[in-house]
Amino acid sequence: MNDIQQCELITLQAIFPETFQQLSDTQFTFIFPSQYYKCDFKFTITYSPGYPMQQLAQFDIEAPQLHDTLAQTVFNKLTSLQQQLMNPDEAYIFQLIQSIDDDQFRVEIIFQDQKIEQIEDDEDAVLVKINHGELPGKPVTDENYHKWFADFTKKKGIKLLEEEDWSKIDYNTEMGATFTGYEYFKRKNDEK
Predict the structure, then answer these.
(1) The RWD domain covers which part of the protein (predicted)?
(2) Which long-range contacts (CB under 8 A, 24 or more apart) does 185-189 make?
């Protein structure tokens, strides 16, 4: 393990103290909480002998909350970014990990979400074409509704008061007064 690798290992232990685990001299794992995806990414990394000028020997991501295709897209994007970050003098793991929440990194993922919304909109348009936007039966108008409502109340035996008569209702006798427990007890005893 070279000096750059040792320094980076100590730095990553300090950044991720709760989740960092060193599995061997060159292999370690930690969890990165992503703000954008609102889930945890578990990284398992193995240094290659020539790191940081060579790619990492092992670079695995686990994100159980993400859909497999989205997780694979993130992994592919990180792998291509890793090739751009290779530098003989500078460790790049944290920069690579943090790019998950970077705006430039998310553009492709957002574009895929827009494609999914487009497909859903197209499916909705097909359903409207099939139904032509019409439901079976008579169209609903005020006259049809009032006629139906009158028939419905007549069949069910519902008696409604006109709005002008609402002020004449004595709610204590007609609607049943609400009594406290003591008033109810006293009223029952008075009836006996």
Answers:
(1) 7-107
(2) none
